[in-house]
């Protein structure tokens, strides 16, 4: 990635934050740590952005903490860590663009899930 990522400071400032996002008790948690840039983490971040139900069950997650499947079937496993997103038990690759886009995509998915659950109009 060339140049300075303008949203990076905002994302890093969220590290360690846990925020309640509605009256029903859904909450989000941010873990964001700068790392050395590697092929698995070319943006130099280790991150986990998650939405949880009131009982603690993870509903949504964007992270780069473990290997993921690129596609179904025995040949679909990628053995390196990479950016991905969780929606309940489904894991899909996520194309990290920059910190601001990651936050926008995360909050868009949080809003979608909270609407589906009847938590927000």
Key attributes of the depicted protein:
alpha+beta; 121 residues; 6-stranded antiparallel beta sheet
Task: Describe this protein's structure.
- The protein has 121 residues and is of the alpha+beta class.
- The protein has one domain (22-116).
- The protein is built from two helices and eight strands, in the order H-E-E-E-E-E-E-E-E-H.
- The chain has helices at residues 8-13, 99-116, and strands spanning 18-20, 27-34, 45-52, 58-63, 67-69, 77-81, 84-87, 90-93.
- The strands form two sheets. The protein has a six-stranded antiparallel sheet. It has a two-stranded antiparallel ribbon with strand order 5-6.
- A hairpin with a 5-residue loop joins strand 3 (45-52) and strand 4.
- The longest helix is centred in the last third of the chain and has 18 residues, at 99-116.
Chain-wise SSE layout:
Blueprint: H1 8-13, E1 18-20, E2 27-34, E3 45-52, E4 58-63, E5 67-69, E6 77-81, E7 84-87, E8 90-93, H2 99-116
Antiparallel strand pairs: 1-2, 2-3, 3-4, 4-7, 5-6, 7-8
The share of residues in helices is: 10-25%
Put simply, the count of helices is 2
Derived structural class: alpha+beta
Low-confidence stretches: none
Number of spatially distinct domains: 1
Q: What is the end-to-end distance?
A: 37 Å
Number of strands: 8
Could you provide a short overview of the structure?
20% of the residues lie in helices and 34% in strands.
């Amino acid at each position: 990635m060339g140049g300075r990522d303008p949203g990076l400071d905002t994302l890093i400032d969220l590290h360690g934050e846990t925020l309640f996002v509605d009256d029903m008790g859904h909450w989000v948690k941010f873990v964001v740590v700068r790392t050395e840039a590697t092929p698995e983490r070319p943006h130099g971040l280790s991150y986990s952005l998650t939405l949880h139900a009131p009982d603690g069950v993870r509903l949504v997650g964007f992270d780069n903490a473990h290997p993921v499947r690129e596609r179904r079937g025995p040949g679909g496993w990628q053995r390196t860590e990479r950016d991905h997103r969780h929606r309940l038990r489904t894991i899909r690759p996520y194309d990290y663009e920059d910190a601001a886009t990651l936050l926008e995509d995360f909050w868009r998915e949080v809003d979608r899930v909270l609407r589906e659950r009847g938590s927000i109009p």
